[in-house]
Amino acid sequence: MKEISNQKGLNSIWTDSLTSNLYPDGNALVDHLRTVHKKHAGFTEACASSCRDETGRNSYEWLAELVPDNEDLRVLDLACGSGPLLKILFDRNKKLNLKGVDMCPEELALAKARLVNSGANLFQSKAQNLTVINDNSIDMVFCHWALTLMDPIAPVLKEVRRVLTSKGSFVALVDGPMNIAPGYTEVHDLIYSYVQEEIPSYGKIDLGDPRVRGSESLSKLVRKVFPKSKVVIETNVVSMEGPATQVAEIAAGFFYAAFVLKPEKRKLMIRSLSNLLAIFKKKTEAKRQGRFSMPISRLLVVPDIK
Ligand SMILES: C[S@@+](CC[C@H](N)C(=O)[O-])C[C@H]1O[C@@H](n2cnc3c(N)ncnc32)[C@H](O)[C@@H]1O
Hints:
Elements: H1 2-6, H2 13-19, H3 26-39, H4 43-48, H5 59-64, E1 74-78, H6 84-92, E2 97-102, H7 105-114, E3 121-124, E4 138-144, H8 154-163, E5 164-175, H9 184-198, H10 215-225, E6 229-243, H11 244-252, H12 263-277, E7 289-303
Parallel strand pairs: 1-2, 1-4, 2-3, 4-5
Antiparallel strand pairs: 5-7, 6-7
Helix pairs in contact: 2-3, 9-12, 11-12
């Protein structure tokens, strides 16, 4: 135990606030996200690309299919990270004019390398203040798994409305209702139980604005900023299978909370998680296959043409 407590996990102004029983502000949130992404750039796509729905689509493809394959459109990927969605969009339709924005330089560097011949323009900027993008200049804004992290959220939605044309649409991938994916709540609770041994209030206080995590509260938030649009939220479940320990590593990599664990504690958590995810518990550890399922939601904000 002594060794465990001497090892370092991941520290930021946000985690320091939590351990001092203070409510972290927006700057603490930005510092935390930058700290995680600097150390683990590209981690989101490792999990999101591997998890697929019943028809074989991963969550990037579920968003990308909303883009017509042969139209000239100006598309912005908000919080594009390492650029997987932009790459799928480029491969799908060469006529798209692509832009990406993210606040983490390490993620943008990966995106730049991947999109080298795509003509995509990438900018470092916060989503709350998109000065690099002109008013009414974008036909579709996408945001894959990042809205949940943004606080304050209202300025982000207002910036999306400002940059979109009057016929433009906004599509975001956010967390789905936990209970629709078998075993997901147990995975969440297991990871958070380890994290809370180190930071008891992690979970009661989490990253981003909690209203983005519930379908009804998200809908309400969006309708306020887009009163004349149609707001639709669809749900889906994506899953992956493989050697249980590998599945546990990839699944844990998807939870920001897991990054604050010290290495030894993380190992213990991965072990429990791979037991939980094992499909046939009786097999030896090395031979166990695991399965992880994740709930996702697709938010669509489109002009209400009646
Ligand atoms: C979970 S990752 C998703 C990345 C990418 N969209 C994907 O799905 O692969 C979240 C991304 O949001 C970015 N991000 C979070 N808050 C942001 C903000 N307020 N402004 C700009 N980028 C932000 C982070 O830097 C990070 O790259």
